[in-house]
Specification:
The protein is mainly α. The chain is built from 5 helices and no strands. It has helices at 2-11, 14-50, 52-62, 70-100, 108-132. α3 packs antiparallel against α4 and α4 (70-100) packs antiparallel against α5 (108-132).
Length: 140
C-alpha cells in the first residue's frame, strides 16, 4: 500500500509532472521535426509544379485581347500583377526549399516557411478574387 501511495504522490509531484512534460515535448518534437522535413520536400515539389501556372496566366492576359473599358483594363492588369507576385514568390520558394530539402534536422526557418507558404498563397488568391469582382459582381 505504501508503494502505491509513493508512486501516486511521485507522479503528481513537481518532478514527476516536469518529467512527463519533457517526455511529451521530446516525443512531439521528433514528430514535428519529421513533419517539417517532409513538408519542405513537398513544398519544393509544389513550387516546381506551380511555377508554370502563373507564367501561362500572364502570357494569356498579356497577349490576349485588348480591353475597351477602364474596369476591364484594371482587372487585366490586376490579374497579371497578382500572378507576377505569385510567380516571384514561387521562384524564391523554389530556391529556398532547394537548399533546405536535403537537411537532416529541421530548423526554425523550416517551421516558419510551412505557414508562410499557406499565408502567401491564400493572400494571393484573395487578391485575385478581389480583382475578379471588378468584372463579376456576383458568383453564381
Amino acid at each position: 500500500m505504501k508503494v502505491i501511495e509513493s508512486l501516486h504522490n511521485n507522479q503528481w509531484s513537481y518532478e514527476g509532472i516536469k518529467r512527463r512534460i519533457l517526455r511529451a515535448y521530446k516525443d512531439y518534437s521528433r514528430v514535428s521535426d519529421e513533419c517539417a522535413l517532409i513538408n519542405i520536400r513537398r513544398i519544393y515539389h509544389l513550387s516546381i509544379i506551380a511555377i508554370p501556372l502563373p507564367v501561362i496566366c500572364i502570357i494569356l492576359f498579356a497577349f490576349g485581347k485588348s480591353y475597351d473599358t477602364e474596369v476591364l483594363k484594371t482587372w487585366s492588369q490586376g490579374i497579371m500583377g497578382s500572378h507576377f507576385v505569385l510567380l516571384l514568390f514561387l521562384i524564391v520558394l523554389f530556391l529556398v526549399t532547394h537548399r533546405l530539402r536535403n537537411k537532416k534536422k529541421a530548423g526554425l526557418n523550416m517551421y516558419l516557411l510551412q505557414y508562410l507558404v499557406v499565408l502567401v498563397i491564400m493572400a494571393t488568391g484573395i487578391v485575385i478574387v478581389t480583382f475578379d469582382q471588378l468584372v463579376t459582381t456576383n458568383i453564381t
